[in-house]
Structures
1.
Amino acid sequence: MEKEKYLAETKKALTPLLAIEEAARCLLCHDAPCSKACPAGTDPAKFIRSLRFRNLKGAVETIRTNNPLGAICSRVCPYDKYCEGACSRCGIDNPIKIGELQRYLTDHEQAIGMKVNDKVELNKEKVAVIGSGPSGLTAAAGLALKGYKVTVFEEKDVLGGWLSYGIPPQRLPQNVVENEIDYIKELGVEFKTNCKVGKEISVDALRADGYKAFLVSCGIQKGKNVDVKGADLEGVVNGVDFLAEAKTKKGEVKVGSHVIVIGGGDVAMDCASTAKLLGAEDVKIVYRRTIEKMPASTEEREYIQQHLNIPVFTGFKPAEIVGQGGKVTALKAEGMFDASTMELAADMVIFAVGQEAEDVKAIADLNAADVFAAGDIVEDDKTVVQAVASGKLAVEKIEAYLTGKSGLDEVASVKEVVK
Ligand SMILES: Cc1cc2nc3c(=O)[nH]c(=O)nc-3n(C[C@H](O)[C@H](O)[C@H](O)COP(=O)(O)OP(=O)(O)OC[C@H]3O[C@@H](n4cnc5c(N)ncnc54)[C@H](O)[C@@H]3O)c2cc1C
Ligand code: SF4
C-alpha cells in the first residue's frame, strides 16, 4: 500500500475540458512575458493560442521542437520562478497554469503516439556526451537532429541523472523519463551505461576512436556530509543516497518509524515526502534558518506541511546525533538565534544539506579546445530547465566549433564558468 502511494503521481492531470477552460483564461498578450521568462526558450503564449483553437498538434509541435524533455519539465519546473511568475494574469487574479497545460499536451502527444522530430541522416562528426542528465540528453538530441553521431556515456546503469535517481516518482514517474529517453534513442543517439569517463575510458582513448568533440555534463553528484557527533551511527543516511535507493528499487526500501530530515531545500522536501509515503509513522524537518529563507519551492513546502502533516522546526541546527548499541535514537539540536535546545526521538536521520562536485578535471581537460561543459557544473540556477537551456547552448557551441564558425574565445565562454 505504502509503495503504491509512493509510486503514484500526486498531481492529477487536467481533463480536456479544464485544459480548454484554462487556455481560454489566457489574455493572448502581445508581448508574451511568459515566453520571455523561460530559460529554455519555451513559447507558452504560442502553444496556449494553438490549444485555444483546438489545434493540439500545433501546440505539441511548439513544445517539442524546442525541448526534448517537455513532458519532464511540465512536471518539475519551478514555474512560479519562470513563466507563471511572469504571466500578466498575476496582476488580475492567478497566472495561467502553464505547466499543467504543457503536461496536458505532452500527455496527449504520448497517448496518440505523435512524433514531431524525425530522425535525420547521421553523416557528421562523432560527439561524446559525458553524463545522461537533462543537459546531456538535450545536447544529444539537438546534435543528432543536426546529423552528428552522438554517444552518451553514463557511469550508472540507469539513464537520466537526477531525473531517474533523485526526483521522486510522486512528482516525476519513471515512465515519463523513459519515454523521453526512448524518443532520443529513436533519433539515433547511442547510450553506453556503466561506463565512467575518466575511469573505464579516457577522453584521449575516445579521441583516438574518432570523437571530435566532448560535452562534460556530469552534474553534481555527491551528497554533502555534516561533521556532527554521531553522524556515523546506523540509521543516519545521506538524502540523495536515500532518494536514489528508493527510486531505483521502486519503493522497496526500509524506512524508519521516526524520521528526521535536516535541510530546507527541495531535496529535503523530497526526502520527507518519500519517507512519509513509504510508511514512516512521523517525519519532522529541522532547518537552520527561517521559513522565509527556505530554498524549497513554496508549493512543495505547503504540500509537505498541509497534506502530509510534516512539521518544520526552523532556527535549529544539529548538535549531536544520539545512539544506543550503534543505532541512532535521537537528534539533539540547538537554536541558531537563541540558546534554546531540543531533543527529538528518531530511528532515522536524513541529511539533505546540498551536493558537491567530484573532480571534473579527472574526466577531461576543460581547457582543451574540443571539450565543452553544460548543466549543474556550469549553471548557478541548478534546475532541470536550466540544464535543458545549457544543453541547447552547448549544441550551438559544439556545432560552431566543428564547422569552424567560431573563434576559441567564444567557445571558451561556455567553459570558463566551471567551478
Ligand atoms: C532530489 C532532487 C530533486 C530535484 N528536484 C528538482 C525539481 O523539482 N525541479 C528542477 O528543476 N530541478 C530539480 N533538481 C535539480 C535537477 O535535477 C538538476 O539541476 C539537473 O538534473 C542537473 O542536470 P545535469 O544535466 O547537470 O545532470 P545530472 O542530473 O546531475 O546527471 C549527471 C549524470 O552524469 C553522470 N556522470 C557523472 N560523472 C560521469 C562520468 N565521469 N562518466 C559518465 N557519466 C558520469 C551521473 O551518473 C549522472 O547520471 C533536483 C535534484 C535533486 C537531487
Ligand atoms: S503572460 Fe499569461 S496571459 Fe499573457 S500570453 Fe502568457 S500565459 Fe497568456
Note: The chain has three domains: 11-111, 126-221+357-415, 223-354.
2.
Amino acid sequence: MNAIARGWDEAADGYLDYFVPRFAPWVAAAVDALPAALPDGPILVPCCGPFPELDLLGARFPGREIVGVDLSEGMVSRARERARRWPSARVVQGDATDLAAWSGCAAVVSVFGLQQMPDPEQAARSWASVLRPSGWLSIVYWPEQTEEDGPFARVRAVLGGKTSDRTWETRLLTNTPTTIERDETITFPMTHPSAEEFIDAYTTSGPMRARALTEGEAFVERIRTHFLRDTPQGEWRHHPQARHLLARRELSTGAE
Ligand SMILES: C[S@@+](CC[C@H](N)C(=O)[O-])C[C@H]1O[C@@H](n2cnc3c(N)ncnc32)[C@H](O)[C@@H]1O
C-alpha cells in the first residue's frame, strides 16, 4: 500500500495538470447523475485525488458536507487546497477500501479509483453500505477494455494484455442493499499532443508511477520504448470508454 501512496504522491502535480482536464467530462457525468433531492447526510468521495469532483458537487449541493478520502498525502494536500474554497468540504487521508467508519451518507461518488482497489468488489460493497436509505452511489471506473485502438489499448498491450483478474466487474454491487438504476458505458473524446507526451504523462503522473518505484526506472524506460514503436505522429485523439454505475440504496434495509 505504501508504494501505491508514494507513487500517487509523486504523480500528484502531473496528474492535476495532465489528466484532470482530460478526465473532466467523466467527473461531470458522475456528479450530474445524482438527483437534485438527496437525503440528509454527507457526500463521500473515495479516491478523490486532487478532488475535481468537489467544484461540481459544491455548486450542485450548496452547504452540503462533502468529504474527500484519499490514501496519498500529496493528493490530500492538493485536495485540501481546493477545499479551502468550500467551507462545508474537508479531506481525510485514509484507505478507501473499507469505509466502515462512515454511515448515514447521502451519496458516495467516486471517479477512476475503484479499479485500483485491491478488492474492488469488496470496496464497492463497503461504499454501498455507508449509504442512508434512499442514498445514491455513483461510480465511474476504467473497465478491463477501455478501447479497441488508441493509447490506452496500446499501453495495455505493451504491459502484456490482461494483467489481473477482472471477474469482479461482473459481480459489482451484487448482494448489496442497492438497486442499480444505470449501468452504462460513457465515452468522450480525449486528445494528447503526441504519443511521447502521452506516455510520459502516463508513466510519471498516473498509477504507473507506483510500478516505477517497485520495478525500477529501467522497466518504465522499456515500456516507453516499446510503446513508441509505430505510434501516430502528432496529435493523438481517441475515445476511451468508462463504466458508470448508478445505484440507490433501498428503503427498507433494516440497517439504520
Ligand atoms: C486516478 S486518481 C482519481 C482522482 C479523482 N477522483 C479524479 O477523478 O481525478 C486515483 C486516486 O485514488 C487514490 N487511491 C488509490 N488507492 C487508494 C486507496 N486504497 N484508498 C484511497 N485512495 C486511493 C490515489 O491516491 C489517487 O489519488
Note: The mean pLDDT is 94.
3.
Amino acid sequence: MKADPAAQRRLLDLAEVDAELARVLHRRRTMPELAEITEAEKTVRAKSDALVAIQIQLDDLDREVAKQEKEIDAVRAREDRDRKLLAGGTLNSKQLTDMEHELATLERRQSVLEDDLLELMERREAIDMDGKHAGVELAKAQETLAEATGRRDENLADLDTNQARREAERAKLIPTLPADLLAFYERRRAQRGIGASLLRARRCGACRIEIDTREMSRIRETPADEVVECQECGAILVRTPESGL
Ligand SMILES: [Zn+2]
C-alpha cells in the first residue's frame, strides 16, 4: 500500500477525531447518571407502590368507619324511639320492664360500637401519618430522579455538541485523503478500534508496545511512501521526525 507521507500524517488527525468520537460514544453509554436514573426510577416505583398500598388501606378504613357510624346511628334511633315510648306513658309494667331492659342493652351496644369506632379512627390516623411520610419519601425520590435526569440531559447536550464538532472536522478531513488510503485505514479501524497511530520513541501509539530492533530497522528501510503497519495491533504506523528512526 503506497501513500504520500503527508497524507499518511493527516491520518493522525483523523485517528484523533475518531478517538474522540469513540470517547463520546463510550461516555453516552457509560455515564454514571444512567445507572443513577435506573436506580432512582426503581425507588420512585417502590415509593409510589407503597403510597398506593397505604391509600387502599385508608379507603378500606373509611368504608369501615362509615359502616360503624351508620350502625351507631341505627342504635341511637332505636334508643330514641324506646325513650319516647317510655315517656309516652302508654306502656304497662311488663312492657316497661322489657323496654328498660332493651334500652340498657342498646346503650351497652352503643358503647361497644363507639369504642370500636374510636379504635378505627386511631388506626386511620396512624395510617394517615404513614401516608404523609410515604408521600414525602415519594417526592424525595422523584426529586432525585429529576435531578439525575437533568444532569444526564446536560451531559447529552455537551456530547451532542462535541460529536457535531468532531463530525464536522471528520467531514473536512475525509476529502483530503486518498480513497484507497482511507479505505485501508477504515478496515483497520473496524477490526481494531484504532486505524492509525504515530510511531514515537520506538512505540506504536495504538498498542503502546515497543518495537524490536529488527522490526525498527525494517521500518527504517521502508520507503516513506510505503504504508507501514504495527505487527502487534495492525494499526497503520505513521512515521514523523518524532518516530526515532
Ligand atoms: Zn500497535
Note: The CA atoms of residues 218 and 228 lie 10 Å apart.
4.
Amino acid sequence: MTEQRRVPFNDLARGMTRDRDALLDATAAVVDSGYAVLGAQHAAFERELAAYLRAGDAVGVANGTDALELAIKAVMPQGRSVVLTAGNAGAYTSTATVRAGYTPRYADVDPQTLCLTVATVSDALTDAVGVVVVTHLYGYLGDAAALRTLCDERGVALVEDCAQAIGAVRPDGHASTFGHAGTFSFYPTKNLGAIGDGGAVVPASPEIAARVRQLRQYGWDGKYNAALTGGTNSRLDELQAAFLRIRLPLVDGFNQRRRDIIARYRDATTGLDPELLTVLPADGVEHAAHLAIARSSRRDNVRAQLAGAGIPTDIHFPLPDWEQPAFARFAPQQDLPSTTTACVEILSLPLFPELTDGEVETVSAAIRSLT
Ligand SMILES: Cc1ncc(COP(=O)(O)O)c(C=O)c1O
C-alpha cells in the first residue's frame, strides 16, 4: 500500500531554510552591534516599512494585538468609549479594546467579502462609538477610503487591522494608510513573518506617531518620566527587526504566489456544486491572499473528505467574538446574520508561498474529487 502523502497546512521550516544564510548573517550583525532593542536595525526597519507602504511613518511594537491596543488608545476621541468592529476576525480587536479599557461592539460584515463596509458600519454607528476597527480579513483591502470618509463625517477615528493584509494596495494607497492608524502583526505565519513575535503601527500623523511611541515605552516622554497614562512595554527587538528587513522586499512576490495558488484551487472547483465548495476569490493586488478561504454548507463532510486525502484544513475563525466566554457580555442585541453564517461555513485550505506545485495539485485534485 502506498502511504498517503500529507500536504502541510503550513511549514515555517521551508522559509527559514530558504533564508537561512541571510538570517544568520543578520543575527551576527545584531550580536556584534551590542544593541538588543531600539537600535539601528529597528530604526531601519521602521523607515523601510514606511517607505514600502508609502506612509509617513511606522512604529515597531511587540505584536499585532499590542499594535491594535496602542493604536486604539492613541486615536480614541475624548469622551468616547466604544470600539465598533467585526465579530468574525478572531477577537484580536476585542482583546485589544478590553485591554485599552473600552467596550467592543459589533457591526455585521458584508456577505461576500466578510469585511466591514460603509453599508454595514453606518447603521451601527452610535454616539458612543469613538473608533471603528476594520480588519482587512484574509488579506482583502476593501473600500477603506469610503470608510474613512464616513468616520470623518461622524467624528470617529478609523483603525485598519492589516495583520493579514500587508502589501494589499489600491491606486489611492496601501492597506494601513487610509485610517488614522493601521496595525500589523509579524507573527511567523503572516505574509511578512518574523521568527518570533512582532508588530507595527502606521500612524496617519506625527501626533499619533508620538503618542504610540510614548505608549509603547511606559508612557515616557523621556527617560523615567511617564507623561501619558496607559503606557506599556511593547518593543520590537533588534533581531526581529533585522529578520523582517530581509523579508520585506520579498512580500510582493510571496503575495503573488499566494494569489496564484488560490486561483488554482478556484479552477479546481469548476463544475462543483457551489454549496459543496466555493473558494473565495483573491484576485488583484488589493488582495494580499493571507488565507485560502472556502465556504461550504456541508463543512464537516468536506473537511473529512479532504483529511482523508491528506489535506489538513482549519477554520479562521470558528466563533463570533461574543460566543467566546471572555466577550459574551458584549453580545449584540440583534442578529448579525452574515457574521454568524460565515462562522459555520468557512474553512481554510493549505496556503503558504513555499507550497510546491505538486502539493498545490494534490489539494486541487482532492477538491475536484469532492462529492
Ligand atoms: C486579523 C488579526 N489581527 C490581529 C492579530 C494579532 O496579531 P499577534 O498575534 O501578532 O498579536 C492577528 C494574528 O494573530 C490577526 O490575524
Note: The pocket of pyridoxal-5'-phosphate is lined by residues 63-65, 89-90, 92, 135, 161, 163-164, 185, 187, 197, 199 (CB under 6 Å).
